[in-house]
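Incident log, support desk, overnight shift.

02:14 A customer reports that sequence design results differ from what the structure should imply. Their input is reproduced verbatim below. On-call engineer (initials T.W.) acknowledged and began investigating.
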């Protein structure tokens, strides 16, 4: 047990600020900048080095949807998003975001992004799902813009005097009288704890798709934000919905999950996808109504897959000299280099691809001002749910996330202006620190290696909470396994007892929240007895008008309460046949 004198040893710093932003991707850094512009003292913390961590924002492609010129409009943008989101979006929030996005694009431009313009106007292209040309083209050739975004922020942080602290893993939201009052974090470099009190906390920790065994995002994005928010009493929604991306490499392991190479080759060289029987199954099953990632996963599950658990992406239908000319046109590019490292000659061999989780739709339930139901707690970016509904349009997530960050920055600054400083006093930290230290000190005979528990959880995620395997029986079984992993959490131990730079310990501290996030996915998937977006219930393969509802999860003591909340349609109603009879207006 930690006594008072030990506690001061364990806590290396106690800091204070008006607004504390947790997470330094596009949403978090935009929130920090907007709050600081409004005079708030701002601290931002992130798990890795600032702007060089595993944020999905630094991996993003070229899509950034912004409705700029008629006939396009923020309303038209919202309408497309609602249609693709299958009417589960929170419409007032979405409209606030589509109205905010053009300003965000202007900020990126002002900060140094280089967009292609003609006669003073952005040149925009249309992405699937959008009815207008909405994605501004960058003057930089290539499909990944994440590294460009990354370079913009340090200058803005310096300009505004924002305290940005890297290698700080947030562990818990500290509350006082039911309101968010700060964060307890592990300083990973020192192996000691940092307590930061704040009048407002903005969660911007990204999504949870990194929990899965094969993932297209960073394996560090594992749902800690949504887990912390849930623990603090926040409502969470739409956890059953996610985007899985088909063009992710399944092999070799060094590149597993990466999407840029296969995407580019498939588009530019019109690649064909085959199963192990040589069948072009995507063409054959075109009318099935099932989404491409589900069709690929069906082949993989039915053992009609490649040796490394993928399907084949082939270019052999093209003449060698055409492929050669294309590869030569790539010059000395990073992607060409990776093909060389893989030792794959695409004139003769296919790439192996498999659907991998890319982006989560679900997260903290927020209103149009990004407020959660916990006073003083805001959420922005992929950690928040509601903007996208059941599915998304390529190019939408990052723009929506940045817009959420902008709104959260303004709202948190104004909340902080009105909050009393005493609300930022922190509670007793000893129990939380004790809990965080336990895996280092656990030496009992029954101790369970945390890495083993993580592997067990990932088996459940990969087999039962992936694109396939969602049936009542399988989901109930998954919940049983997750609950049992959680029950054993007090016995988790880490092999390496070092306090500094101990990634095994950090991984173990992540695991607690991964378990919560996985349980939320499983319970929401079980509750939703229909198929919608990429949530595919094999026992309920069709969408149902009865399910124009969000599934909301909230902590009640030690129980996870699951409720069904009807969606409101203040802006755009679903077509008549999609509305449940009870909700249709008479006549
Ligand atoms: C490969 C790839 C390509 C994509 N391409 C596109 C695209 O072209 N267009 C598009 O619209 N969207 C795209 N997306 C999705 C989009 O990039 C993300 O949805 C978006 O960037 C999320 O932004 P965010 O700021 O919410 O989270 P992130 O950018 O993921 O940032 C989360 C931050 O939280 C930090 N963090 C996490 N946990 C903790 C913790 N416990 N303590 C402290 N810090 C923590 C992380 O280190 C990180 O700094 C893509 C995603 C991927 C993976």
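02:41 Re-run completed on a clean worker. Output:
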């Amino acid at each position: 047990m930690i006594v008072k004198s030990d506690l001061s040893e364990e806590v290396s710093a106690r800091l204070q600020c008006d607004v504390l932003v947790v997470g330094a991707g596009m949403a978090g850094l935009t929130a920090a900048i907007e709050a600081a512009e409004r005079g708030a003292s701002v601290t931002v913390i992130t798990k890795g080095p600032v702007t060089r961590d595993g944020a999905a924002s630094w991996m993003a492609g070229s899509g950034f949807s912004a409705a700029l010129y008629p006939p396009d409009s923020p309303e038209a943008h919202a309408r497309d998003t609602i249609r693709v989101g299958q009417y589960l979006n929170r419409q007032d929030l979405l409209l606030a975001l589509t109205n905010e996005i053009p300003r965000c694009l202007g900020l990126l431009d002002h900060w140094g992004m280089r967009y292609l313009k003609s006669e003073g106007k952005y040149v925009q292209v249309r992405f699937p799902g959008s009815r207008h040309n909405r994605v501004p083209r960058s003057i930089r050739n290539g499909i990944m813009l994440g590294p460009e975004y990354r370079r913009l922020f340090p200058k803005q942080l310096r300009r505004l005097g924002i305290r940005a602290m890297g290698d700080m893993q947030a562990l818990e939201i500290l509350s006082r009288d039911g309101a968010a009052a700060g964060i307890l974090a592990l300083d990973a470099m020192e192996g000691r704890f940092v307590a930061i009190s704040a009048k407002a906390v903005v969660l911007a920790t990204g999504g949870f798709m990194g929990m899965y065994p094969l993932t297209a995002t960073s394996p560090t994005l594992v749902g800690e934000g949504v887990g912390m928010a849930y623990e603090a009493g926040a409502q969470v929604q739409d956890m059953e919905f996610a985007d899985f991306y088909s063009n992710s490499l399944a092999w070799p392991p060094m590149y597993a999950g990466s999407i840029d190479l296969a995407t580019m080759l498939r588009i530019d060289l019109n690649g064909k996808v085959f199963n192990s029987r040589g069948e072009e199954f995507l063409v054959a099953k075109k009318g099935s109504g099932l989404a491409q990632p589900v069709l690929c996963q069906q082949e993989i599950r039915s053992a009609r897959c490649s040796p490394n658990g993928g399907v084949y992406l082939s270019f052999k239908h093209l003449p060698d000299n055409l492929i050669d000319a294309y590869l030569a046109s790539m010059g000395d590019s990073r992607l060409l280099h990776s093909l060389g490292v893989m030792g794959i000659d695409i004139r003769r061999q296919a790439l192996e691809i498999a659907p991998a989780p890319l982006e989560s739709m679900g997260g903290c339930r927020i209103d149009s001002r990004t407020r959660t139901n916990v006073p003083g707690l805001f959420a922005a970016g992929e950690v928040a749910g509601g903007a996208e509904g059941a599915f998304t349009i390529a190019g939408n997530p990052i723009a929506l996330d940045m817009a959420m960050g902008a709104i959260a920055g303004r709202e948190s600054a104004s909340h902080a202006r009105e909050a009393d400083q005493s609300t930022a006093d922190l509670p007793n930290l000893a129990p939380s620190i004790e809990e965080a230290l336990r895996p280092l000190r656990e030496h009992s005979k029954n101790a369970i290696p945390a890495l083993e528990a993580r592997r067990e959880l990932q088996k459940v995620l990969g087999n039962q909470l992936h694109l396939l395997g969602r049936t009542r029986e399988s989901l109930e079984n998954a919940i049983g396994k997750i609950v049992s992993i959680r029950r054993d959490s007090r016995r988790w131990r880490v092999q390496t007892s070092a306090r500094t730079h101990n990634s095994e310990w950090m991984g173990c501290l992540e695991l607690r929240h991964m378990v919560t996030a996985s349980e939320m996915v499983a319970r929401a998937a079980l509750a939703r007895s229909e198929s919608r977006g990429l949530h595919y219930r094999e026992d309920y393969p069709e969408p149902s008008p009865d399910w124009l509802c969000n599934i909301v999860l909230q902590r009640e003591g030690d129980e996870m309460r699951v409720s069904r909340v009807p969606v409101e349609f203040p802006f755009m109603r679903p077509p008549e046949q999609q509305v449940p009879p009870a909700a249709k207006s008479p006549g």
